[in-house]
Amino acid sequence: MRIEKNRKEDRPEIETIGQIRDYIKQTIRIYLESNVPTGIPVSERKKYRIKVQQLRHSLRTCVYGDDGEKSYVKHFIMRELEKMNLTVRERDILLPVQNPERMDGTQKFRVLLYRYMKKYGKEGFRKLCELYGLPGEVKREDGTYFEITEADISRIYQEESIRLSNGEMLEVLCDEVYESFGHGVIDRLRDCRLEGISGGAAGIPEHVFQYEGVFAEPVVGNYAHDSVFVMINGVTVRLAFLSFGSEQELRRVTKALLRFEAPGELSYYRPYIVNDMKDGSRVFACRPPFSESWAFFVRKFDSVEEKKVEELVVGEGAESVIAAIKYFVKGGLHIAITGAQGSGKTTLLKAMVRYISPKYNLRIEESVFELWMRKEFPRRNILTFQETESVSSAEGLDAFRKTDGNCLMMGEIGNIHAAALMIELSQVSEQQLFTHHAMTTEKMLGYFRNALLRTGMYSDERMAQEQVAEAFDIHILCEKDINGKRYIKQISEIVSEDGGKGRVLYRYSDERYEMTGVPTRQLLCRMSEHMEDVDKETVTAFFTGV
Fold first, then answer.
1. pTM of the model
2. How many whole angstroms separate alpha carbon 269 and alpha carbon 267?
3. Computed over its alpha carbons, how large is the radius of gyration of the chain?
4. DSSP secondary structure code for residue 250 in this structure
5. Would you place residue 1 in the very low, low, confident or very high pLDDT band (cuts 50, 70, 90)?
6. How far is 284 from 96, CA to CA, in rounded Å?
7. pLDDT of residue 431
8. How far apart are CA 255 and CA 238, in angstroms?
């Protein structure tokens, strides 16, 4: 069945984007349900079937985080938009680019993001923020927030003096139509290099407005589906001009973000799910009654691609800290990186891998794939194990014993069983690196000691504490201040005497890094044993000055 190119005579006049979406969906439905045209060569019939199958597959998988499948669906939509032959009046109604007073903040942002991503690719949103000094601080009754407001978007749109060609206007309309197939208003934004994006994490759920008298009158902008946040440069920013429009749409997007690898549906008995997407993003999604409203959190990891330690540790005295980290890793030490969520632990861990000897076989255990080390080091012997419903993180760590791995990494230790096994494996692995949420050296050592006791590996507290102290060499504590600035608060050596304690070697204070101690001779000797000759000659002199 062939649909003619010019369809203007076959359709009513278009006045809303909803009409276009309905028209495109009907066209797709007809295309998928139509029979293969007769009277054409067998080869052409085969091509037709393949195209139908490809579209059906892409419609199902375009929400996985796969650029290729998404592009295929958008290409189909774009082709149908061209066939619709929209009039000048219809285009002006749908996208009044030259009359910004008729556009809302979402439309203006969609045009701005389209232009910046066309020029800068996935860096488009960052470039837009950098150029216009976003986000700003907005003062409200209860304090100051990081927020990008509709007024900010309107100001930028006016300064840009935007002009779009007919082809560009169709591409922007294509983006808007595709949102109903993809991830809604966050669809293009989710593709940008951000640290994270979330929805439904603020505002009042619709049922509260319906049942609580004090909220009987809807308040625009205060619904849960009106909340969209991004994390960029270490701070969480509300995009006050974006909204999913309804709780139904927020629910649809939340479910769509979970569809890769079919982990199952959110339900009353399974109200939250942690999953990954095809591009390596990690998704946490939840629903009532476990949470107040439907909500999701997407943690992005493409924003830290190819980052080097030199780019992450900056400021006065940073050169000495960078060199020390390099020696610690090259020396085969067991290193713990801790700090609060968003303080840069995973970013630093990923950057430190380039210092691990290529002669080491690297084994990584994660709850979901986040680090993607083989993507950056495709020639190295690296294998990552992922926690599944049938295989726990502890079992994944135990699998390390059965491989030829030298260095063990764990993206995040989040339970006592994995923590206890990590201590046990420290006796057989040549090097370990992992992240954890402890905020001090004492709390980190205490957590692992308690893990040994609670899992029954040890019954004597003193012996458990000594075992933990011997398992660690270096503790790197990351921190993020209230304005999103990330830095290494301190680096400590774990000394096994007296059950383990931290000796601070480097500390961040008054906007600069300073060396406060020298590694013990025992640690320096251990480092030298694992280093190449060129590093052996310099490591002691670097730390001691002798």
1. 0.74
2. 5
3. 27
4. H
5. very low
6. 37
7. 92
8. 22
